[in-house]
Write a structure and sequence with these properties.
338 residues, alpha/beta, Rossmann fold, Ubiquitin-like (UB roll), five-stranded mixed beta sheet
């Protein structure tokens, strides 16, 4: 089968040959990767272009003295939790980051646009959750520092492209590469088991099926659910149209397993502008007191509780006294007495 290379590809190839700097070669190669016809006759060429890109990016890093351990490859934690977006090339991670946050990542139709971690803050009602878009997880670009960020995150968002015939391969390829780094994506982080090997990380994961408005999306989604529904919670969305984005935003909050606790000064009404304290699910009144001030662990005499309208269960509180060991729910209001 002939390659049938387009004039745009040939022009980019000539620019690549004439390029005087690494950056010029990268830019020309990016256009070659974007304009090369995608069919069986160009599969080897596409693979060769990806290898060239990986070498050029490594050469660029060395030139500017960037090491694997450099601070540029770490993301300081912010907000109520940190979730990382990972996936195969061109599945729409950056577009989802832009849709969910106020970040403005570089977005293009060719792979490897994202080369370094791209953070953004996602609002969920009155708190912010940090999302981090990582470079594509692919053999030619995956680096150990990417795995380090995944390990340290609170949640993994595995993005796949429902508009691609390779959607199942995307899940399996990313899983295989991470498992080679002793990282396992699971439904719940507690799935590690008692016999887990040292150094193995089990990361709570949500599979996000992007581009659910593509023509072939219903058929591909059915296959994804059939094969992976027991392994991951599955969310569908479209970064392009915005469909499913609010549901995804809420699911991310729920899968982080956190609660918001509000505090009020005794004898006064709750300040509507007061920011909540963010705690892990299962936290108690004493945990909340420590979050307010560490001395409360010793000086707290009692607490009064007002239940959130979202509280689960038949028992509701309207200012009653509660024990220090009382488990809190999202949205509860506490009045702490020393």
């Amino acid at each position: 089968m002939t390659a049938n290379l387009t004039p745009q590809y040939l022009a980019a190839e000539q620019r690549f040959k004439n390029a005087a700097t690494t950056q010029e070669r990268i830019e020309a190669l990016e256009e070659m990767m974007a304009t090369i016809p995608k069919h069986k006759g160009t599969e080897k060429m596409q693979a060769a272009l990806k290898q060239k890109m990986a070498r050029l990016l490594e050469e660029k890093d060395k030139k500017f003295g960037v090491s694997k351990a450099s601070a540029i490859y770490t993301v300081p934690r912010e907000g109520a939790g940190q979730a990382v977006l990972i996936g195969a090339p061109n599945v729409g991670k950056s577009s989802l980051l832009g849709r969910l946050t106020h970040a403005t990542p570089e977005i293009a139709d060719y792979p490897f646009t994202t080369r370094l971690p791209q953070p953004g803050m996602m609002p969920v009602e009155d708190i912010q959750i940090q999302l981090v878009d990582l470079p594509p997880v692919a053999p030619e670009i995956y680096k150990p520092w990417m795995g380090s960020i995944v390990r340290q995150s609170d949640l993994v968002l595995l993005i796949v492209d429902l508009g691609s015939d390779e959607v199942l391969d995307q899940v399996e390829s990313v899983s295989r590469i991470l498992e080679d780094s002793k990282i396992h994506m699971v439904h719940a982080a507690t799935a590690a088991g008692e016999d887990a090997q040292p150094g193995v990380a089990f990361c709570r994961t949500v599979l996000v099926a992007n581009k659910d408005d593509a023509a072939c999306a219903p058929e591909n989604l059915e296959m994804v659910r059939e094969l992976f529904h027991a392994q991951f919670p599955i969310a569908t969305a479209s970064a392009a149209s915005g469909h499913g984005i609010e549901e995804l935003r809420r699911l991310i909050f729920e899968r982080l397993e956190i609660i918001r606790i509000y505090t009020k000064v005794p004898g006064k009404k709750l300040d509507p502008a007061a920011a909540p304290f963010v705690l892990k699910e299962g936290s108690t009144v004493l945990d909340a007191a420590r979050a307010v001030h560490r001395d409360f662990a010793h000086t707290l005499r009692f607490a009064r509780l007002w239940s959130s309208p979202r509280s689960i269960g038949s028992v509701r509180y309207d200012g009653q006294m509660v024990e220090r060991t009382h488990r809190l729910q999202d949205g509860d209001i506490l009045e702490l007495h020393e």
